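This week, work through this protein record:
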Amino acid sequence: MRKLPLFLLLCGLAVPSLSAQSDPAGSREPVAELRVLDAIVLGVVEGVTEFLPISSTGHLIITNHLLGLEADTPLKGHDGQPLWHKRPSAKNPAGEPLTLKLAADTYTVVIQVGAILAVVLLYRAQLLSMLRGLSGRDSNGMRLLRNLICAFIPVVFIGLAASRFIEQHLFSIGSVIIGLVGGAVLMIAVERWRWRRAGVGHMSKDASDLYPSEALKIGLFQCLALWPGTSRSMVTIVGGYLAGLNPAKAAEFSFLLGLPVLGGAALLKGWRSGGAMIEVFGWSNVLLGVAVAAVSAALAVRFFVAFLTRHGLMAFAVYRLVLAAVIAGIFYL
């Protein structure tokens, strides 16, 4: 079971889009091997930030920039011929050249599989409960599965419809700053609201106790995370607060909801441009990034649940504001 998300991703990478074509010489070895240190840094950043409400996408965009992985210069194969992600065609005469940035953007999505594996391991009891629910042996597990499906539905339709636009127009430093600040303001407002409600027993539900309509609302909140810098973890936890979940239960629901969302995103990205990523970086450091992300995500999740239960989201909101100011100072001042 723990190997299933990775198996599906590898299938997507092994059968890349036919548009990711290149010369035979270039397909034998990487065009620009990713350094081991780069793979480790990206794996740690992904694992630590994926489930914390501070935006993994935002941190990875910034990390790619600092590591010099944003070059848009078209790459050439070992025989000197240009490499194509999408070859020129009648519909697209210019084609889409293979670039370092395209490969790096794919890499930052694909290594989310490591974070998925960490959640599968840590929350295997809940996953087994949902499996028992499918066979009619666990009513709580069945209700939890129903609620996860309801929360997952909105991002499927909105995410697929907007994915191309987001990739082309929103993966930028400016978008990340807006997402960080907007998310911080939302967290502060909702955290203040939660503390007022906590004393009257409002935050007492379990994720399996949610009505389908409440789970659907959490799913709509999750769609806000399509804007880079917002944080999927943050908006789903906020949605969980508003539905009556306490911090630990809201975080648990957020983590479990991340399995199909992150797995689907990684599989889709791997299918679209996984072949191009492997051609540029090779296999070894892609797998290294996944492994590092898995270990760092497991450690981060354990820390986060304990911290969130005691202190709530306020500290992370402050961190986001400070980070946004630092990024603005570095890139715009």
In short: The chain has 14 helices and two strands. Strands lie at 84-86, 96-97. Residues 4-332 form one domain. The CA atoms of residues 16 and 275 lie 5 Å apart.
